[in-house]
Amino acid sequence: MALPLLESMHPALARAAAASPKRMVNICSTLGLYSGSWFPTTGGAGYEATEYLSLIDGHRDRYTLFSGFAHQEQSGRQPHNSEITWLTAARRPGMDGFRNTISVDQVAANHLGYVTRFPSVVLSTVTPQSQSFTRSGAMVPAETSAAELFRKMFLQGTPEEVAREAQSLNDGGSILDRLKSQTTALRRRVSAGDQQKLDSYFEAVRTAEE
């Protein structure tokens, strides 16, 4: 099971900082955002935070805003046809003869995916439809089940072991119950601040299992 970043890890992380892989996260808001509440009216780092940006203003030095970008020829048969070309920029979505192209996240996965445990993780909330497409233009189905995502990320071993662990979770058990000795030993070795962080993390894991 993965752990959150702890103070006790900093020395080791400092030694491995140069090899730490970068991640790309693409989030599609299908209904869009009101531009007046998103984009600042002035440029430069000293802009006045807008209604939306004020929520993340504490991280201002860690992100960059871009405006004025648009894909060409995105008018399909329906207004939302352009959702499938958000990461590809393929033209005339939904029209006769349309064929999508590879999405930018899959380009990154093909070139850099070997440095992370999963080259690509495609998620959705309700349907498996996604904005991720292969080089041939085929959609990469999204995972919609939190339980299945949890299984893929945290349950390891042979197929039989994974099946037993999954059944235990279905029966109301917790992966933390089988790691109790390890988590108890870990808490003894870390600082008080790390202990609080671990407690919060373990509580979140139990909530996710439910």
UniProtKB/TrEMBL annotation:
<dbReference type="Pfam" id="PF07586">
    <property type="entry name" value="HXXSHH"/>
</dbReference>
<dbReference type="InterPro" id="IPR011447">
    <property type="entry name" value="DUF1552"/>
</dbReference>
<protein>
    <submittedName>
        <fullName>Uncharacterized protein</fullName>
    </submittedName>
</protein>
